[in-house]
Design brief:
The protein is α/β, with parallel strands linked by helices and about 475 residues long. It has 3 domains: about 150 residues, Rossmann fold, CATH 3.40.50; about 80 residues, Elongation Factor Tu (Ef-tu), domain 3 (Beta Barrel); about 220 residues, Rossmann fold. Helix content is about 30%, strand content about 20%. The protein has a 6-stranded mixed beta sheet. Helix 8 packs parallel to helix 9, helix 9 crosses helix 11 and helix 13 crosses helix 14. The longest helix is centred in the first third of the chain and has 23 residues. The two termini are about 30 Å apart.
Length: about 475
């Protein structure tokens, strides 16, 4: 297994801290994926071939995320080179000191290719291709520095395969990965041990307020709980009632638990929708809570993410008047071949991508059986007037005030794009992010580096955010079976 030195410093013996830093040769796609990668190699040195600079220049034009990153990487390089030249005319040849972005002490050094590379490529590799020229640079550096570990870093799988076939150490760029194993991703809930009350409820306080029960419990488990995490304890036998609660506060070894509103009961229905399982009940408690500004819902197809979110949005917007409008957006990544140019306004262009919205609105509009056909038609028109469909391409610079913002298919967003969207939220706005990290359609994202994984991990424990991973599919027995076996 390749040592992943990009995320953590190598394990060094305390008595031998003078070990030689590694030399990483950076491919262009790493800089275009993350311009700040220049500052993320800790004490190790970085080498940029001239072909990397050429490819940055070739990709700097346009309004795409890749073009923006190429321009930003060029700006960082210009700042570094200018500062080094001002201090020492020979600073570039000797290596430019790199500082961490937090402003810490200098760590590794940056070397730019200023010499001709004489290493000959194998005859099977085309000499004019930039990838092969970068491989030639790595081979040259291995020959020049036999005692140093020279490693190629690239997001290009085929380039890494070619390099390893030639005996060159090659690694992917790991720093953007939130988790190596997505099974460790925060689920937003945990089951309490059967002896929880015996171990944590000895000096327990309990009281009722506004129709809900509060418990203040103390014990070793409380330290590992997070604010707004759901906890549950299923009944051991007949006659016992389950405990479904939300962690409201953590103070040392003491936790304050608040029981939930039961959205599985018809009297608490949300726009005619009731929760069909425990996780949907948890999700509705987050969606209907005005104190929660940011909600993330993960789950496979058919678990009810969009339906629950829209039902709560309609209730909060049309009935309770908490928000003035529902805004829905999603990433426009096709599953198969692209169908080409779509005519019309922004909303008309987005309509083909909003089939899930239309399907769920049909379900929600049929929940009122007493309204009749005319009543349902009027309700449908009212709903459509309060839901706006927006494209991600036009989100920069906008501020949404008192809006209910839904970001669908968020697994296809990068962490930077996710930051751009969430920071659009103004006063009184609630942001709900939906997605399934098992259905990533963007070629350069993985489950560990998706923006959805990123925000779930970064927002956990914040007092105004909540997360639930929906587990049970409620679409149909066919959909459930297909999800299990295919």
């Amino acid at each position: 297994m390749v040592e992943r030195t990009l995320r953590h410093a190598p394990q060094v013996n305390p008595s031998a801290k003078t070990s030689t830093p590694k030399l990483f040769v950076i491919d262009t796609n790493v800089l275009m994926h993350d311009p700040t990668s220049l500052f993320r190699f800790e004490e190790h040195d970085i080498y940029l071939p001239i072909f990397t600079l050429e490819e940055l220049d070739n990709n700097k034009k346009g309004v795409t995320e890749v073009a923006r990153n190429a321009r930003q990487a060029s700006r960082y390089l210009d700042e570094l080179v200018t500062a080094a030249s001002a201090i020492n005319p020979n600073g570039i040849a000797e290596g430019i000191p790199l500082k961490a972005q937090s402003g810490g002490a200098a760590t590794g050094r940056l070397f730019l290719q200023t010499e001709a590379i004489s290493t000959a490529l194998p005859s099977s590799l085309a000499g004019g291709k930039a990838d092969n020229q970068i491989i030639a640079v790595v081979m040259h550096l291995q020959h020049e520095h036999p005692k140093r570990s020279v490693i190629l870093v690239s997001k290009d799988i085929n380039m890494r395969i070619k390099a390893r076939a030639l005996g060159i150490a090659a690694e992917d760029y790991f720093n953007d990965k939130v988790l190596e194993d997505t099974d460790l991703l925060y689920s937003g809930m945990r089951e309490l041990p059967p002896d929880f009350w015996d171990r944590h409820g000895k000096a327990m306080e309990s009281w009722q307020q506004a129709g809900q029960t509060y418990y203040r419990v103390t014990g070793p488990l409380c330290q590992s709980l997070l604010v707004n995490e759901f906890v549950y304890l299923e009944p051991k036998g007949p006659g016992e009632t389950p405990l479904y609660a939300l962690v409201k506060e953590i103070t040392g070894r003491t936790a304050l638990l608040q029981t939930l509103r039961d959205y599985t009961h018809q009297k608490n229905n949300v726009w005619g929708i009731t929760a069909r399982n425990r996780e949907q009940n948890f999700a509705l408690n987050l969606l209907m809570n005005p104190e929660i500004d940011f909600v993330t819902l993960l789950g496979q197809a058919g678990t009810g993410k969009t339906l629950l979110t829209l039902a709560a949005g309609l209730m909060l917007t049309l009935e309770l008047k908490v928000y003035t409008e529902i805004i829905m957006t999603r990433v426009t990544v096709p599953v198969g071949e692209d169908i080409g140019f779509l005519p019309g306004t922004e909303e008309e262009k987005m309509n083909p991508w909003m089939g899930a919205l239309e399907d769920n609105l049909d379900v929600l509009n049929k929940t009122d059986d007493d309204a009749g056909e005319w009543g349902r038609a009027a309700t449908r028109d009212l709903i459509r007037s309060r839901i706006k469909v927006k494209s991600l391409n036009f989100m920069r610079g906008r501020t949404f005030i008192n809006k209910y913002l839904i970001i669908d298919e968020a697994q296809n967003l990068t962490p930077k794009q996710m930051k751009t969207l969430i920071t659009r939220a103004g006063p009184g706005t609630k942001v709900v992010v939906l997605g399934n990290i098992a259905q990533i359609d963007t070629p350069y994202l993985t489950e560990g580096s998706s923006g959805l994984t990123y925000v779930v991990d970064r927002f956990k424990g914040w007092s105004h955010s909540g997360h639930v991973t929906l587990l049970r599919g409620e679409r149909s027995r066919l959909a459930d079976h297909a999800a299990a076996i295919l």
